[in-house]
Amino acid sequence: YQRRVPGRLSPAALPTMQPMRIHGVWYDVSKFSHPGGPVMLSLGECRDATALFEGHHPFTNRAMLEKLLAKYRLKDQSGAHVMDARDETLPFVWPEFESKSTESPAEPPVSAFARELRQKVQAYFQAEAERRGVPFLEAIKATPRRWVEMIIFGLLFAFTLPAFIRGEFWTLLVTPIVYWVFGVNLFHDASHSALSRNWRLNVLGTYVGWWFSSPFEWYHQHIIGHHAYPNIPERDPDLYHNAKMERHTKTLRWRPLHQHQASTWVPIWMIGTFAMNFIKPLQMFSSNMYNRCVAMIPVGRERSIQHWLGRVLIFCLCHVWPFFIFPLWKALLFALVPVMIVSVCFMTSTQINHLTPENVDVESDDYYKHQVLTSHAFATTSWMVYYFTGGLNFQIEHHLFPTVNHCHLRYLQPMVKQICAKHNVFYHESPTLVQALGKYVQHLKELAAKPASE
After folding, report:
1. pTM, 2 dp
2. How does pLDDT run across 257-269, given as a tens digit for each residue?
3. Burial of 227 (0-12, 13-18, 19+ CB in 10 A)
C-alpha cells in the first residue's frame, strides 16, 4: 500500500484501487464489482468511509453486507493509513455495532430513530415495487414519468440552442434557465446513483452539469464532504467557499470583509459556478484538498491530463466560442450572462438548504439526526419550486436517503416529519422560497458581526 499525503501529487497512477476504512476496519475492494460502479467505490479510497457506506446502504440486508465486507477485509490492517488525519476523529457514534463479536451484526448500527426511519421508508418502497411490478432497487430510482420529464426538459433546452448559437437575445435568459432545469433534475440524482440502477447511466448523467461543475470536483465537494458531514466545521467544504468574503460558521475566524456579506452575496452568487468549474479544480489539484476539507482521490498523471483537457473543453464551450462568431460586445454578453444566470439558479437552489440560523453550528453524534438538524426543507407544496430546484427543496428527505430519486421525496416527507416529531428531532421547514431566502440573509447578517472575543 502506497500512502498518498495531501499536498503531494502522485507521479503515476496507483496500480489498484486503494483500501477504505469502515467502522475501524480496512477493506480492499479493488476486485469487487460494485453495483454502483467503480466511481462510487473510489470515493472511499484512503479515507474513513463509514458515513458514506451507511448513508448509501439504508435498505440493504445487513447480514449480506457484513458477509460481503468480511470477504474483502484487509489481512494486514497495520499497513493502511488515511490520507487526512481528521479521519482519526469521527463525529458520529454508531450504536450497537458489535465490532468485537465473533458473529456478524444482523442489524444496522443505528439509533432507534434511524431504524424506524429506515424501516418505514423501506416498507413504503416495498409496496411501491409490488404495485409497479419492479425490483426494489428499481422502485427507488427515477420512475418512467420522471424519465419523460427529463427528456422533455432536455428537448426544450436543445430547441433553444440553434437560436442561442445564432445570437438571438431572448436566449440569453431562456437557454440558461431551461438548461438549469434540465441539468439539476438529472445531474444531481445521477451523482448520488439515484437516477438509475445502471451505474453507467449515472456516471454519464453527471456530465450534464458542464455549466456548473466538473463531476470529479463535485464528488469531492458534495458526496464525500458535504453529504457525509453536513455543516460540520473542517469536514463540510460548503462552509468554506470564498471564506475570505463569507463566514458561514462561528468556528471560522472573522475577517473585515465578512461585515459586508449581507450585501456582497449578490455578486458572489453570479460567479459561484464559474469558481466551481474552473477555480476550485486548480485549488484542489495544487493542494490535493478540496476547500481544505476533503482529501483528493488518488489519481495519476494520465487521469489528471484527461481531467484538465476536459476543463479546457468546457471553458471553450462556456466562454470562448462566442468570440469566433459575434462582435466583441455581443460575444461578452453570450460568454458571461448565461453562466451568471445558471450560477444564480444554482445558488438559489443550494445555499438556502443548510445555511440558515437554525441549521448552522448545530450537531448530533447520531448520523441521521444530524442530517435532519442541519437541513432545511422549503416550499414543499410548490411544484414550480420542485422542478426549478430538482427536488432539492425536500432537502431533509434527500440527506436521509441520498440514493432515492427526488421524484419520491414528497411522498416520504409526511412519514419523516411524523417520526421526527415522535423522537423530538427538530424538522426545519419554510413554507415559501422567499421566506427561505430571508433566513439565508438573516444567517449572513448574524455571522457578519465581529465576535466580541476577537
Report:
1. 0.93
2. 999 999 999 999 9
3. buried
